[in-house]
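Issue 218. Parser rejects a valid record. Input:
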Amino acid sequence: MELLAYGWDLVRYGLTGWAWPAILAFTLITTHLTIIGVTVFLHRCQAHRALELHPLVSHPLRFWLWLSTGMVTKEWAAIHRKHHAKCETEEDPHSPQTRGIETVLWRGAELYRVAAKDSELVERYGHGTPDDWIERNLYTKHSALGVSILLVVEVLMFGVIGAAVWAIQMAWIPMLAAGVINGIGHWWGYRNFKSPDTSTNISPWGILIGGEELHNNHHTFATSPKLSSKWYEFDIGWMYIRLLSFVGLAKPRALPAEMLLDPARDQIDADTVEAVISYKYELIAVLSKTFKRDLRKIKPQSASAEKWSELRKEFESMWSRRQMTVEQAVHGLQAWCAKAEASGSAALIEFSRQIRMVIPRRIAA
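Output the parser choked on:
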């Protein structure tokens, strides 16, 4: 009888006997760990090579992702790289612009599985990912084993409720990463930069999804390990990277370059074009912000406002042309600055002066 009672208690409470607050805390901590594994290891480290991780960090994250998601590093990196290479075209594995927001939001994980079966895609875009013995013989070969082990362990730990904990963990990444980031992150939100896609920042506080909420920033500076851009934005993934870097367990690569100005320069040449191309998104953002501020001082339908709008659009479109020689870019930029300086707008004249002063980082170095 006592044995039966013990067995019933084991089914109800598991080996730990934890109450629901402790189980809830465990669930939140483990799902957050999964998010960190995805954003720091899979996304920033593997897909974009934005940082190097010490094996003491990368191996535990690989192991936990195998347990909690069953995702294969090479497949994940390949699919994400193709998303950037073919963004919002028919070849994009998960674009809401071509597949519909509801499909990506609710069936994002299914789109991932379909893309992962494309061996040509995986081989072409999955280069440079881990290819050691444990990756080949366990994580890739038996990708479903990890999540099965986790189910057994959590049922033993918490009893019947352990199955619910496991179900939440299994839904966490498909819903938040595959659904919300790939779907809403290209559908709704605010934009700091006019990147050549519809990527948006869902929230200025990147905590729930590890900083991935700042998706427009990421598409603008894809190889940056830091996803926040404005002073009020917070990227918790970058916070963890900085902490790991402080103790020598991570090495971030280049951050978005700060715009360098040389007050002694007053010309537009090939170096100016090189610098403007490097800083084009920041410059477009500055011009748009200046336009909105200046528009408050003049009548919206006036000739000045129309001229302002025309010059702003012309500057933006100038850098979206794919086939343009350096000479053409120099002449185009010179002509644009001449128009800006002749417009009579103090803001446009100042912006043109800034263009003339901008220099490439290689000259500063």
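Fixed in the parser; the record now loads. The first strand starts at residue 51 and ends at 53.
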